[in-house]
Amino acid sequence: MATETCTQAYGEPSYWDNRYSNESGPFDWYQKYHSLAPLINLYVSRHHRILAVGCGNSAFSEGMVDDGYVDVVNVDISSVVIEAMQKKYCNRPQLKYMTMDVRNMSAFEICSFDAVLDKGTLDSLLCGNNSRENATRMLEEVWRVLKENGVYILVNSVVTYGAPTYRLSLLKRSFSLIKLHVTEKYVSEKRTDPPKWDLLKPVPLDNDTSLLETVLGQNPDVHYIYICTKDSSLKPDQKHDVAVE
């Protein structure tokens, strides 16, 4: 029961304020920048304006700036971690930090960003109360702040409602074009042997994800990376029937 309570608290600001008050070093959910850099470079140009939602104390955005990205805006619901990150990166103008709830990003105008990065934030909302409603509100805001043809890059595990069948049913309510990439969960910077999965090659998808299971097998030890492209040419009532690639 203690585990359930802790997990459900992932969607609450108080949980994160308390966690970041007692956490000194940086922590990256799922993957560090070096692991995903080739994929980020493929879909996001270095001059693009980028929004990292639920940034926490991750060093991912720092890695992006070190790699040449010039405008990375980071938001998190925890004022504790945002204040700490503002102090830490006060001399790096490419990095901006703001306290914000991803379910209401009204501080940003419509079509403000070329890309939105999410490593664990949608998962966190799906752990809390009113999970479906909160996740839908977040995705509506992501859609709103993205520019036309902008990309929402979502990294998740199969834990916390993360199986592709469930995740795709949620994403397809907003996004007309979805590609799926996979990467092994644990990738060392010093690794010399070739990876089992080609990060840059999308995994084939069909509507019931049976093809995905054929390619990856059952319960693969991978992280899923969804590349969701905004396309306003579809009418809102058509978004439930869009195809995936």
Structural class: alpha/beta
Quickly count the helices: 9
β-sheet strand percentage: 15-25%
Order of helices and strands: HHHEHEHEEHHEHEHE
Mean pLDDT level: 83
Low-confidence stretches: 1-6, 239-245
Comma- or semicolon-separated keywords:
single chain; 20% strand; globular; alpha/beta; seven-stranded mixed sheet; 245 residues; disordered N terminus; disordered C terminus
Structural summary, described in words:
By secondary structure, the chain is an alpha/beta fold. Helix content is about 30%, strand content about 20%. The longest helix has 15 residues, at about 130-145. It is globular, with a radius of gyration of 17 Å.
Compact description:
The chain is α/β, with parallel strands linked by helices and 245 residues long. It is 32% helix and 20% strand. It has a 7-stranded mixed sheet with strand order 3-2-1-4-5-7-6, with helices on both faces.
Layout of helices and strands:
Blueprint: H1 2-8, H2 13-21, H3 33-43, E1 50-53, H4 60-66, E2 72-76, H5 79-88, E3 95-99, E4 113-119, H6 121-125, H7 131-145, E5 146-156, H8 164-171, E6 177-184, H9 210-216, E7 222-229
Parallel strand pairs: 1-2, 1-4, 2-3, 4-5
Antiparallel strand pairs: 5-7, 6-7
